[in-house]
Design brief:
About 45% of the residues lie in helices and about 20% in strands. By secondary structure, it is an alpha/beta fold.
Amino acid sequence: MIVTGDPLKGRTLLVAAGARTLEPLQSGLEALGAEVLPFPVIEAHPVSDPAALDAAIRALGDYDWIVFTSANGVAFFVRRARELPGIRPPDRLPRVCAIGPGTAAAAAAAGFPPDLVPEEFVAEGVFEALVRRCGGAPGLRGKRILLPRAEHAREFLPEALARAGARVDVVPCYRTERGAVPAAILDRVREKRPDLLVFTSASTIRNMIETLGQDEGRKLLCEARVAVIGPVTGKEAEAHGKSAEIIPAKSTVQSLVETIGSYFARIAATDPP
């Protein structure tokens, strides 16, 4: 469905996201007429001990692939590489895989133009794309793969690659903490339930619940309409007793905005005048 006009006019949307995702998501939803309550529940910080990251950066030329699973992963990896003294680009850069278009754009801007972006922007999609690029699972055997990512991320991808025989180095390059939500936003949420809760990762759901308190947070989640950026985030909502009404076909900010607009446009079209 093509979204025209301002289908979100008069709608209040709580958007729980990290700073990097919150800004474009907020502007996209406001362009469709929404009032956005920004809920910055995630803050990203460098890891406390970068020794493993430093070693991987110095050995970058030894890897066959580097896999970026978030724009934050790109940013913190490149930031640390620039901080290290005496680091020069290796004679041979590894091939680059980025989990989705946003991460791919960040990688390209940082000097790591992607060789591969999967059709499905989740860890499972990354694994399947690497298998196809390498001519089947046996083609991964012995490949050295660097996976710079957040601390405490999902284990599917490194475990699947290791089972296929790849030599995987999982290197935390940033950590996430629960962000501080302004008191005025918390008051608004408690005064009147938003028309939609928007989540961009599993941790945004957990952090929203923790910010509001377990009982209040779970009640809000289960009683409100919910939009999630993809199936992994949707599974986290289900773990708390809520099935999301809105899941875009592609796990991107643009697709999420368009799908939310289409959802409320359909509601407006069926409402009596």
